[in-house]
Amino acid sequence: MNDRANSLQESTPFKAVKLLRDAGLKTLFKEGDTVGIKIHMGEYGNSLNLRPQWVGAIVEEVKRLGGNPVIVDCNTITFGDFTSRAIKSDHLRAIARHGFTEEALGCPIWICDGDYGFDDVQVEIPRGVYMKHSFMGKKLLELDACIVVTHFKGHPMGVYGGALKNVGIGMGSKRGKISTHFMNHPVYGIQAMEANQAAAQQLAQAPHPNMVDRAIEGCPFDAFEWKDGVFHFHSEKCGKCAGCFSAALFAGLLTLKPEITATWAPTIADAASGYIHAIGKEKFLFVNYAMDISPWCDCVNFHDRPLVPNIGIFASKDPVAVDLACIEASEAKAALPESKADEFGFGDPGTERFTNVSSIAKISQWAQCNAGEYNGIGSTEYILVESEPGEETDFWFPPYTPDNIFGKVNKEALRSGNYEPGEYFYDLPRLSFAELHIKPKGKVDEISILDEE
């Protein structure tokens, strides 16, 4: 369904509910089953993540069908010196700021790899492009079924972030995420990287605590050292935790192995295959919200203007097909004016804007889908079915129904109110009709407020 709405049943959350019904939600689980709703609730500072009310409508539908819904996610790797979702206690605080609480959603929230992301289980990948196995949050194995609800958007490493990424990264424990990104690979990983002395010398000139100081203090394994004006990376001490992934690596203190970037998109599909097969391929349904299609993922602590206009909502039992449908629908649109796609020269339809705008290494936007098909978890050939909204009465605010309407339920209370306003208006308006419709002067100047320090 597209993103337009003119009535209650066409509202965004209720379109998703209708699409889930069309895609076979009723047959996905039986009464009493534990049904995971896998979502990404957004890094602190990002505000284009899924809306709680979108997810809440799906929670209510699962309950209506007799299932026991639970929101599921796993902790992240350490994205920097103030990452917000790398441990459970921080994770829950960060998502509460976005409105994701058990009270708001109406069901429990499970962080499935434990307090620090170490509660995991190794799962085999039947036919990976790069990977033989990965590690998923252990509590995910308690699910009887799973609805993967995804905000479709760009992604710096996956090139795009869709259903495959929501599973392949989002269901991974800390070790699973690090492995999937090849950060602990013996040849391409962080431990095999070298210190960049030119970058270190420049960064060391900044006031303390500078990036060199922070890299040294932030390493749990004390693998970094500044001695006699030289930045040392003691790789033999490296614990492969990827805690320096943002701070040291993206500051240029470590030299990234260029070959690693080619692995990032297909390994996401590899890991997704492992997790999907571990829970059961037939136990999944996927919903993609192709809305607020920002250049980068909700994992980062900011968001840019969306690349293209809102498209709508897609649902399927096939994660490859649902992702590819979103990519192709995005490719069919002209970019939003002054978006990054427009700025970089990829405003015209069909310009592979995720490849050229979202990917930090210009990796193909098709790689993840092709790897997903190779892994046997979906098809790159699909039929797009246009769905119709459901009945308005299906989505009335409880407890109201056509035979139990608001005025009937609240009759006595409504009768008791005082509706008499007194003389609250002037006999004649104080401004004429013409005066009210004159365009105001508007902006008369423009200045910038600079940091005085």
Can you put this structure into words, describing what you see?
The chain is α/β, with parallel strands linked by helices and 453 residues long. The chain has helices spanning 12-22, 52-64, 88-97, 102-105, 163-168, 174-180, 197-203, 211-218, 245-249, 264-279, 319-331, 340-343, 353-358, 367-374, 406-409, 411-415, 433-436, and strands spanning 34-38, 68-73, 109-111, 120-124, 133-137, 145-151, 153-155, 159-161, 194-195, 224-227, 230-233, 254-255, 284-290, 312-316. The strands form five sheets. The protein has a six-stranded mixed β-sheet, with helices on both faces. Strands 4-5 form a two-stranded antiparallel sheet. Strands 7-8 form a two-stranded antiparallel ribbon. The model has no long low-confidence stretch (mean pLDDT 96).
Q: How would you sum up this structure in a few lines?
A:
The chain has 453 residues and is an alpha/beta fold. Helices cover 29% and strands 13% of the residues. Strand 1, helix 2 (52-64) and strand 2 form a beta-alpha-beta unit.
